[in-house]
Amino acid sequence: MGKPKKPVILITNDDSYRAKGIQALIEALQPYGHLIVVAPSHPQSGMSHAITVNMPLRMEKIEQKENLDYYIVSGTPVDCVKLANNQLFRDNKPDLLVSGINHGANSSSSVVYSGTMAAAIEGCLYEIPSIGFSLLDFSKNPDFTASIQYVRKIAINALENGITPGTCLNVNIPKLPLNEIVGVRICRQNKGVWREEFDKRVDPANREYYWLTGEFYNLEPHSEDTDEWALHHKYVSIVPVQIDMTAYDSIDRLNKWDWKV
Amino acid sequence: MGKPKKPVILITNDDSYRAKGIQALIEALQPYGHLIVVAPSHPQSGMSHAITVNMPLRMEKIEQKENLDYYIVSGTPVDCVKLANNQLFRDNKPDLLVSGINHGANSSSSVVYSGTMAAAIEGCLYEIPSIGFSLLDFSKNPDFTASIQYVRKIAINALENGITPGTCLNVNIPKLPLNEIVGVRICRQNKGVWREEFDKRVDPANREYYWLTGEFYNLEPHSEDTDEWALHHKYVSIVPVQIDMTAYDSIDRLNKWDWKV
Q1: Which residues does chain B have within 8 Å of residue A116's beta carbon, measured at their own beta carbons?
Q2: What is the largest CA-CA distance in chain A?
Q3: Could you report the predicted ipTM of this complex, rounded to two decimals?
């Protein structure tokens, strides 16, 4: 069997196969490729690059239509990418991996917590051109109309031009109607942090417990080359993300320390 | 109350408070600081930078001695760092965060899967000088004798010299006696990938399931500036890791794409 003419696009997310965001990705890309969806069976927000090592995984095919195969996996977004590559793409790698559309932002340092972006980074480790998409709307039922247009534009660009090996794209989309979005802006990752306020409560057995809540602090709100700036100024932000985390600038300095043990 | 004269060192890991590796960290650093241990109550291998968003967390103090406060948390390594910073370090940040000693390597691209390194990266996001330590020995009861000497050397160096903000250190230690370790080598992250073989089985109800197994492939075994090379040549490897994942080299190229929607 030859490779199908249409590009093969692997789709996953972290909000689970039932999320509206993954349906929006399917709607955006169905005209342009053969879609293989492999999504978590349960929500995986905040799972980052977690993999399931102490439990077995299940994978179930739930739908097969023309140009769409739909699987669910009982694990994390990264588990989905690994299992898809091992079980479904042994001979032909997908031409593109897209993850999302996340319900909520993954800009700035949120990239390290994000299951959506972890799936894209894992795709990148498999040498698949990979993109994570997030919409700045945490609600269950956001309006993905504008997102769908930008997903198409960015995915087709990636299929045509390729993505530099060792990198993937982190795309965030402002919560705005299509005609209010100014355009696309290529950015660097904003310096920002989440600071937690744990909500301390007492359970019916009188034992304390904590709920994680957090607030984002932008450490450089006036830098115009960051993703946060772009999003606040009504742009779709694209940050190219690399899997090499080496801080090359620190190597010389560390070499000057006394290392004799 | 003034700050205690001894440096305050926050200790965590991903193998849980019962792991030998965290005991080795305590043994290494107890003479040099006031230790606050906040460790997961259960093993968290492969949890990467996951945070607990859909469940509450418990924190319990299990021990208090001179220069050692010991807490356990019902979450991930990153939850431990967040909860410690929010509940225990509201007024004074710790002087140093150390995570580990992990039972098994976290060199090369394993940094993205590692709970040990995620805790160090989270410390870095809190602007605490942070180090993750891993020993190349997956067994439950490794010999940490040499590791303890290198933990001391590296931690004291970090306390004295500081670590560049926005970066942390990924330290891997070969499984060798102290006199066979050649020394410390500052390295870059090796290009390498895990390739999975899922072990497919059938459960008693005749349903398929998969166990994740994997093998590491070094994509550049002859590059002498990588952590993998250093470890194979009997060095302790130190990779400075940065939280800015932007692929700066890709920005110009992406700006040339057609972005009109």
Answers
A1: none
A2: 64
A3: 0.93
